[in-house]
Automatic annotation (TrEMBL), chains A, B:
Keywords: DNA-binding, Transcription, Transcription regulation. Residues 32-51 bind DNA. One of its GO terms (molecular function) is DNA-binding transcription factor activity. Residues 9-69 form the HTH tetR-type domain. The keyword Transcription applies. It comes from Cryobacterium lactosi. It holds the Pfam family TetR_N. Signal peptide: none annotated. This is TetR/AcrR family transcriptional regulator. The keyword Transcription applies.
Length: 205, 205
DNA sequence: CCCTACATTGATCACCGGGTCAATAGGCCG
DNA sequence: CGGCCTATTGACCCGGTGATCAATGTAGGG
């Protein structure tokens, strides 16, 4: 019985990787200590040695999932663009990411809805909150002080806050669509609707 | 041991009601044969007598959840309105329903993400599909043959299909927002963005 | 009034999940 | 080399779950 063959702390990472693999392919419910251990080629007890409980393992897995989620939106290359172009770029980047990593997104939702308590939800909701905050500045810039008049609505129009929450709702909705059928997501269709709000770009001859 | 006290076929309904109550308050995982039986005041065996398996019970529960989901959108009172007004009304009705029944919506998502297999997904996706179909006609009417020009985008604009998928995505996104925090859903904000696409309503003095 | 059909019970089974733990194997430091 | 600390093992316990089943009670038809 037992001795360190990989004494390195990579063990935890290896376990997490195995858990991740199982969660992606067989669902969150399939992530059990025994199965993870088997997939990682170790003994079940080790799982509880490195993570104290199953919830510990799942929380660690969730952290892996959430890290790197927000990177693309704060990429410095965006700040050079004009507001509307930046917003368009951000949305497009997000939609593309959603389609590419739809399996991960699905897993994230599986985490969220797996239990009604706050164990996972607070983290995920915090992440969603940061999501909105990432979009707020651009949307406010785009809307201006009076809101987007859209050159069409009679009165005033859409404030920056409205636009931001709309954009986030749109992306979340697209997530679900991407999970159902990744191939059915057409970023151009969704973008067209948002960009229709843009005032005519000052004659570009 | 045992004899019919409620020989009526309401038994199945009573069991379903108990399961529904448990699912809403304690989550899908809490729906076990014993707990449901206890909540319904019957013996565990009865659950398997009326529904053959746990999956049978869950499928029946899902059916309960899906029925009545689409009623509001096909309400005949809508057909009298002008296209844009009808679209606005439909979206508003849906958003209100989402907020009111957010617990049910949450349960629906819990069903969807509870397992990667097709046991629940096909039904739910079919329901989503009908959802889109319910919005398609209005959106096509609103967009017209050339698409919504929005009076702002340079070229053409948004086709009816684009608009419909956008609207559905928006509503799905709002669902998630409603689950996180029902009080934070502002239908006006989301509607404002969509309605900004409407061409100026021909001077209404 | 019995007897058949059906609803109902509750005990019971096999199984699997999370979690614990004594035993042990390796590396490392003196 | 000898101890010591940590990683590791695998057997084990306990609780809960889905599912089965013989026994039993009730209703209703002849």
């Amino acid at each position: 019985m037992g001795g360190p063959k990989l004494p390195e702390q990579e063990r935890a990472d290896a376990i997490l990787a195995a858990a991740y693999r199982i969660a992606l392919t067989e669902g969150l419910d399939a992530v059990t200590a025994r199965r993870v251990a088997t997939a990682a080629g170790i003994s079940p007890g080790l799982v509880f040695f490195h993570f104290q409980s199953k919830d510990g393992l799942l929380q660690a897995l969730l952290d892996v999932l959430l890290n790197g989620t927000l990177d693309a939106l704060t990429h410095p290359s965006l700040s050079a663009l004009a507001p509307w172009d930046r917003l368009e770029r951000m949305i497009r980047v997000e939609l593309d990411r959603l389609v590419e990593y739809h399996a991960g997104v699905e897993l994230l939702f599986a985490f969220y809805f797996s239990r009604p308590d706050d164990l996972f939800r607070t983290r995920i909701e915090a992440s969603f909150g940061r999501y909105l905050e990432a979009f707020l500045p651009v949307c406010q810039e785009v809307a201006g002080p009076g809101g987007v008049s859209g050159a069409s609505t009679g009165v005033g129009g859409v404030s920056g806050d409205d636009l931001a929450s709309t954009v986030v709702a749109l992306i979340h909705g697209a997530s679900i669509q991407a999970i159902r059928n990744p191939a059915s997501v057409y970023p151009d269709a969704l973008l067209a609707t948002v960009l229709a709000l843009r005032p005519r770009p000052a004659e570009r001859p």
